[in-house]
Amino acid sequence: MDYDNDGDLDISSGSYTGEIYYFECQDDGKFLQGKCLVDKENVDLKAQSYSITVEAWDFDADGDLDLILGTRISSVELFENIGTREAPIYAAKSKKLKTQGGKPIKGSNAHRADWDGDGVLDLVLGTEWGGVHWYRNVGSSNKPIYGDRQIIVEQPEFKQRTEEEGPEFSGSRSKVFVTDWDKDGMNDLLVGDVQWLNYTLPPLTAEEEAEKMKLQPEYEKLNKVLDELNDEKISYQRKKIEIPEEVNSRYDAAYEAWLPVYRKMSKFDREKSNTHGWVWLYR
Amino acid sequence: MFGQFEEGECDMWITTILLLVTACVELDTPKEIPQFEKPVRIESKGIPIDVTVGHAAPYMHDFDGDGIADLLVGEFGDVDFPVERLPKRIRDESDSKGAFSQGRLRIYKNHGSDTQPKFNGFEYLQAGDGFASIPST
Fold first, then answer.
1. Mind listing the pLDDT tens digit for each residue in B97-111?
2. What's the sign of the alpha-carbon dihedral B51, B73, A38, A50?
3. pLDDT, tens digit (0-9, with 9 covering 90-100), for A207-242
């Protein structure tokens, strides 16, 4: 996006925390480190949800760039630019996007593209559980009105797969980008994902087995202490009472004691998994 | 101008529970699901692009201005995010240190063409004195 209309490409990004980071391109083509976009009161813009993505386009055809946010499991949100194209100022609170029929529009990234080739820009979205959806724009590109949710790529059936087997399709938490990959005149999809593939390590040696057995009682004891303290913290949260500092301190100390032993015990686990993130081409 | 929007806030937990309950029935009946070839993974240097700690987020843009679209891919990352660049509201929380990773952006320059893209490795987007990054967890 050219955030400030100065003729160069700036970059914006969502974040887990729900704030929107902005990387400004300078005259020499280098980028400034990211900073949070703020509202007119200089308060960081914060989505109503978390784990967000962002695209910028002129949603309401008033000549400036608005921010459209995909969220992990909640509605797509929009921060309206109440400033100008050159000097954006964003409304302090986002609005949730809904369909013509009043249903919430949801997706982990909200990408604008003319999916059905009717010349009007639609909304194409990745999803938390995988697959790709779209909402047809039954209005116009300048005044979008979205129809009901439709499927482009179905949510994949969950299967626990191994490294040896490899993946079959795109996985969960999909992020989608519409492109004509091979310029054949038809829309293709790039779909990013996350997947976990399992693998099994060789059996423990006799020495490792003995070491594990020796460590087990201490690990169980530390686990029990940590569980109890966790329950104690939750009990305060359920009562909507602030957790006493003394309880937090005891929990932190228990966690510090538990962590190194947990790490040692984890080394004895034979069933492991790797986290992957691939980019899939659907055409 | 924004008549399609809902102003009210939703409680996250309620939303989550509702989602779990309705996930199987909420989808509108699709008019027609497009048919694709079996999907393939985009490769760089002959092997599938596989970003650090997953959560790949692809985007195509002519980043180097050579007239050919390049591939940009966001990733989760595995390096601690610097506390001083966290949002103000969580910067001073006692447990914020080490709680977030640096989600970065990979730039795969297209060494092929617009009709036959080809990628030979990537560089992370740089910003300021280091990598451009956002907090992920």
1. 788 999 999 999 999
2. negative
3. 999 999 999 999 999 999 999 999 999 999 899 888
Best residue of B11, B31, B59 to probe chain A, by most A CBs closer than 10 Å:
B59
Cross-strand partners of A12: A22
CB A125 within 8 A of CB A137: no
Residues of chain A positioned with their CB less than 8 A from the CB of B40: 280-281
> Which amino acid type is present at position A35?
K
**From A21, A98, A193, residue closest to B6, measured CB to CB:** A98
CB contact under 8 A, B4 and A99: yes
Q: Are A64 and A78 in contact (CB under 8 A)?
A: no
Q: Determine the residue type at A81.
A: N
Encode burial over A57-92: b for 16+ CB neighbours within 10 A, e otherwise: eebeeeebbbbbbbbbbbbbbbbbbeeeeeebebbe
Helix ranges, chain A (H): 206-238, 245-266
pTM above 0.95, yes or no: no
Q: Do the chains contact at B103 and A15, CB–CB below 8 Å? A: yes
What percentage of chain B reaches a pLDDT higher than 70? 76
Single-letter amino acid code for the residue at A179: T
The CA distance from B120 to the nearest CA of chain A, in Å, is 15
pLDDT band at B58; cut points 50, 70, 90: very high
Q: Where are the alpha helices (DSSP H) in chain B?
A: 12-22, 88-91
